[in-house]
Diacylglycerol kinase (Spermophilus dauricus), 568 residues
Amino acid sequence: MEGEGQPGSGPPAEGLLADGHLILWTLCSVLLPVFITFWCSLQRSRRQLHRRDIFRKSKHGWRDTDLFSQPTYCCVCAQHILQGAFCDCCGLRVDEGCLKKADKRFQCKEIMLKSEGRALDVMPHHWIRGNVPLCSYCVVCKQQCGSQPKLCDYRCIWCQKTVHDECMKNSLKNEKCDFGEFRNIIIPPSYLTYINQMRKDKKTDYEVLASKFGKQWTPVIILANSRSGTNMGEGLLGEFRILLNPVQVFDVTKTPPFKALQLCTLLPYYSARVLVCGGDGTVGWVLDAVDEMKIKGQEKYIPQVAVLPLGTGNDLSNTLGWGTGYAGEIPVTQVLRNVMEADGIKLDRWKVQITNKGYYNLRKPKEFTMNNYFSIGPDALMALNFHAHREKAPSLFSSRILNKAVYLFYGTKDCLVQECKDLNKKIELELDGEQVQLPNLEGIIVLNIGYWGGGCRLWEGMGDETYPLARHDDGLLEVVGVYGSFHCAQIQVKLANPFRIGQAHTVRLILKCSMMPMQVDGEPWAQGPCTVTITHKTHASMLYFSGEQTDDDISSTSEQEDIKETET
């Protein structure tokens, strides 16, 4: 019996062994990829921590790059960069493995010169090899540089001149750098070194020092909002740092405008220019900082302000000739040329004071500064709805086209609901102290500039009626009414005119009952019964660029010329 039982016990044991092998291989096939993935992610995180540690301690402005973002060559090993970094100040590009070597070997742009044993008036070229811009030409032989598929040729990080490897001579290496095309807007490191010495000696006569750079020297300070509009600000900051002295370039989300504008106090009187890269809200923020400079007795250092539009509406930049929006269609070098060629003009700024109604209201009146327009009604309601949803999910509103589509959606919704109807029964309007009788309106818009609603000339309108062009420097406000959201849409596509109420130096609006949406320069809120008073506050020094005109600009200019001819 025992002999018969032993042979029968074999097959079950072999089955268990086979099942054990199957389970083991199954576990290996599942756990091994998991382990490899975990190990790779651990190594990647270690490399990232190491890279960030180098970024933090380095004097270079390192940013991540790879083969897919921009094919380049490492300045250390001369190989293709698969994963590495580039400096957004000097343009140096290195592979991840060579990052530490490059950080020790190559020097970044000097904000100030070291005076030990060095003539401050003589600044040699600062050459970096490889990755020269396309369509650049050698200063010696005038032939194209950077055309070979390898690390070759040199570029000066200050004057942006390029030269072939074989054309590089010792005389060229020791040649004085003239800062190239943008010498009249760059703050040289030697100037800041001299300023530092003068401040130690308690001297403030900067005019004599600036005379060495000539009368054409008008330094440009860049104030960019890295969060504006299509989030192009971060890339623009790097491009400007490469072309200018990095000390001239500020991110207003990290350095407040007033603090950044203190650089103007180290420059000659009335010489500085500021380029604001952002939307109309960023421009208003910078102009508020300029007003603060006036309050603190720094009137002689007030800069002139230009605009590179990155926002959604950009009506102020459009009024000043800088266009409706920037999406990289022209190079940054051309933007700087436009700033150099722009003319100075004045912009009216207005104080909007809102006093809430009520017997026991002890709060101070709210005050806003208006550059563009104030409105109550459907356009303010659209802005309020848009603003509320953007606050909940800001990452979804990074596209200018998508933002305008959201505005269209809320405008269409209001056409059906008509939340602002019978506005004329809820408010009283006074222009220069005289009460105005209103028709059945849903909205009132008070304009300081020519454009409204993302590029529409509201006051001039269309048709045969001739109205004087709205100006932004005459101390007058234009007041118009709209019949609803659908009427706003008709105005924007030039199928209708607004109801023109009049022009005035002072506007007073009394909201007698209910909550109504209001906005000042695109900043909306819901307001209860109150009195709104708009009076002139000050002027701002702006820069107007006449090289870019829209069809509306050309037609409006021709209409103005026709009016002048008929008057004469």
Residues 198 and 205 are 8 Å apart (CA to CA). Residues 1-5, 549-568 have pLDDT under 50 and may be disordered. The longest strand covers residues 530-544. The longest helix spans residues 10-57.
